Amino acid sequence: MIEAVGLTKRYGAKTAVYNLSFQVRPGAVTGFLGPNGSGKSTTMRMILGLDAPTAGRVTIGGHPFRRLPNAPRQVGALLDAKAVHGGRSARNHLLSLAQLSGIPARRVDEVLGVVGLQDVARRRSKGFSLGMGQRLGIAAALLGDPQVLLFDEPVNGLDPEGILWVRNLMKGLAAEGRTVFVSSHLMSEMALTADHLIVIGRGQLLADMSVRDFIAHHSAGFARVRTPVDAPEQREKLTAVLSGAGGHVLPEQDGALRVSGLPLPRISDLAHEADVRLWELSPHQASLEEAYMQMTQGAVDYRSTLDPRAGLRAAVPGPAGPGYAPQGGYVPQPGYAPQAHEGHAGHPGQTPGQAPPPGGFPPPGTAAPGPFPGPPQPNPYAAPQPVPAAVPPASAAPNGATPGPDLTKRDTEEAR
């Protein structure tokens, strides 16, 4: 059994855990829940003697972890699946742990088979996927066949088959009378795995009760009521009757009614007295996730923004440089303003009264964008075009484009 009494941990001015007291009993899977930054990992590190508490104490079987004789044979833990030497194979990693703890080498092959890594036992762990790393970490926790096990996010990276395997493994270990303490953010998985819950927020205890009691205490059940679809007047009549009896009625998108504050027999009697036919009358209990969110909404430190699209409409640099828009059209850059030119206010090449094109004019020195990025390419099949005798100076080039070099008389004759 794990027991914490007045457990407190401070890091300078920050208090990670404050006056935390709880018990984790054998024979059940105990879920350890809390928002990010609530102190779950710090608490697990203090249980395993990795961090010393500022105040209070935590014991395993009545002894601090550091005073347990041959602790790896009594306590197994998975806190960080990446805590593996990447150059070692899975088997050598477990074999080194076994030799340090006096565990027979045959146990290494046994746990590799339990977690399903026997086929990759001689592969280096640095090439393992996230899910394979989780399985290797679980194998290390099971290596000493301990009576107390701690797991921090054990299903992270596992596929559905792996998640089901971990769930059955936890239940099987608890059924053998072991103490199983599991931290996870997956509420749906905790609802299927855990028997008891310990919930903390901002380092303090919020709940210590069974899953059933936690849902009942921190959520409200409701009744789902449905009347004939072709008789909307009966739905309105029933809504008025139930509201008059003290019930709280909310319409749902599929046409049903969500009724709270009245038991099912009372709803049935009121519908019968009002001569309203019912197509559905069923009880509904809130999920663990709903109850958890209701309880911890005031203890969440990190919240997302309301508009996740903010800042996504900026110009995308592309092959044509800043200002290039892949869908066509120039995206004006910050700080750009058209300069007056050729005796009137506007853009080079713009005639008085001419409206700017959609997206605005490109800045001086930038060629007008086309349907394809990059400079235009000459057509080798086009007929030769006559070369003008002289090229206008740079100041007279349309749209501010920079003209090519002047052609000499010799160049002109060669071109002809």
TrEMBL record:
Residues 313-416 are annotated as: Disordered. Residues 354-391 have a biased composition (Pro residues). The keyword Transport applies. It comes from the Bacteria. Residues 407-416 have a biased composition (Basic and acidic residues). Residues 314-339, 392-401 have a biased composition (Low complexity). Keywords: ATP-binding, Nucleotide-binding, Transport. GO terms for molecular function: ATP binding; ATP hydrolysis activity. Residues 2-227 form the ABC transporter domain. Belongs to the ABC transporter superfamily. This is ABC transporter ATP-binding protein. It comes from Streptomyces xinghaiensis. The lineage of its organism: Bacteria, Bacillati, Actinomycetota, Actinomycetes, Kitasatosporales.
